[in-house]
Amino acid sequence: MSAQSRLEDRFETHQHDVLVIGAGGAGLRAAIEALAQGVSVGVVSKSLLGKAHTVMAEGGIAAAMSNVDSADGWKPHFRDTMRGGKMLNNWRMAQLHAQEAPERVRELEQWGAIFDRTADGNILQRAFGGHTYKRLCHVGDRTGLEMIRTLQDRGVQQGFDVYMECTIVRLLTEGDRCVGAIGYWREQGRFVVFKANSVVMATGGIGKAWPITSNSWEYTGDGMALAYEAGAELMDLEFVQFHPTGMVWPPGVQGLLVTEAVRGEGGILRNKLGERFMEKYDPKRMELSTRDVVARSIYIEVKEGRGTEHGGAYLDISHQPAEYVKKKLPSMYHQFKELADVDITKGPMEVGPTCHYVMGGIRVEAETAQSTLPGLFAAGECAAGLHGANRLGGNSLSDLLVFGRRAGLAAAKHAKEVSAANVDPTQIDAAEEYALAAFQRPRGENPYAIHRDLQTTMQSLVGIFRVRGDVERALLELEKLNERWTQTSVEGSRMFNPGWHMALDLKSMLTISEAVARSALVREESRGAHSRIDFPELSAEWGTKNNIIKRAASGMTLRQDVKPAMPTDLQQVLAEDQG
Ligand code: FAD
User: Fold this and answer.
1) Which residues of the chain register pLDDT less than 50?
2) pTM of this prediction?
3) Which helix (H) or strand (E) holds 241?
4) Is CB count within 10 Å lower at the N or C end of the chain?
5) What is the number of the ligand 1 atom nearest to the C-alpha of 356?
């Protein structure tokens, strides 16, 4: 009997030309594109289909459609994205993104998405921080829901296979190429093997490593950790975005997002003295400054004693007509009414920074979204490059569409070109041993306790402001937490066992948190979302470098690669003030 047939006897096994891990906007868009190329596609998701982060997106999709401001175009969008990212962005990704986003939005509309409209029937666009023009295509403050509904309908109609509530724990490799993945059904605890010629990673971010976050339980950095373990490079993980406005009260909902659309629709920030403090920090853009600037401004106001009762700032939209607020911000209206007993049409909200997004992630090539591991592609929040040191609001949803499509296209092409994948059974055995180890240890460490300590470490030592001594302490703490992780134990059976799920998710969070801390330690400057108290200025030298993380036999390695120089035509675009 061959090794392959023995494998299929032991495990439920599926084979696809392209396997997409993650069913958010990036994964679904990649799957749709791969299907359109005539290959077979499987989509795996650790939550239910339709429950990814993309569904939570509120404010909108940034695309220079020029429906509201006719002066907009790809060049201003490119400039804003590069300036917002403090020039660390992969300029080719920023160019492709700005050029292709409008077409991707129109396509979404053709597939059935219903956007808010201008009086003459075009897609309505709203203002957002760091965008020169009104650029965000939206559906009230429920844009992500409409986007995911549309992509899901399209994909299911076209015929991809969906594997829901299935967590991938290891990628499979053959030589230096990625050939599939192994995961387990969360409900039953049984393992399942996926063979594939190409794999697209679309698993989102890492917010759950911080306690105050807008992210849900799914954001544990799995995709980045899986790619890292399989030998792919990660890039620029020091850039973690703290969104300026999360709920601060009541405690049970701390961190829940208050969309930037509130400020886009005219919301004003004040401290407890009633001062409109953004006048001090960014008098030109005020509340619509970039997220890194607004988050730091609120943080400083609170730290210097001008915070609100519950340690935040006031955000007020009540000067707008009540009906307008309810129409443009229906989710925010209900969120505050139901969770905090505050009527935002009558009074201010209390808000404060919340861990929201990671700009760093899997290093990819701009045109194809291929990682440094052949056969592995990555798109969406788990991929690095487009947003540089700080993402502009709305640029994630457009990123998912532009690079999700590109990843699906390139993954399908790659799948057609390479020979059929062979899976090495010893890798399956190793993955199984790794995943089940916590069941073998009686009375070990509780994974939830380690998670809590990880969150405390990241919040207090690798948060909005960083300093050498703190980050060094964080690395020592992470070493201890990693050691404790090897002693975790879980009780009960493998059937829907949350402690077991947490133990596995925790390993991903520990790996990526270490990458964040290592990268934050060496970048001796302040740029975008990375603020060093001991190095408060931009450094010209660091502006040319990306931090690259890679796994070696000795452990995690970090090096700096010099960014390729920007071609002169794009330099000229940057130098122009008007599009
Ligand atoms: P996701 O949509 O999160 O999908 C990740 C998928 O991967 C999920 O299906 C998950 O189950 C799966 N997965 C993860 N790990 C595994 C594993 N190990 N095995 C199998 N499956 C796995 N951006 C904007 O541009 N505009 C906005 O208005 C906006 N509003 C936002 C509001 C909120 C509250 C939040 C949290 C984010 C918002 N963002 C917004 C950011 C944006 O929504 C996300 O960056 C984006 O949706 C990420 O999409 P994704 O496809 O990369 O990942």
Assistant:
1) 579
2) 0.95
3) strand 240-247
4) N
5) 36
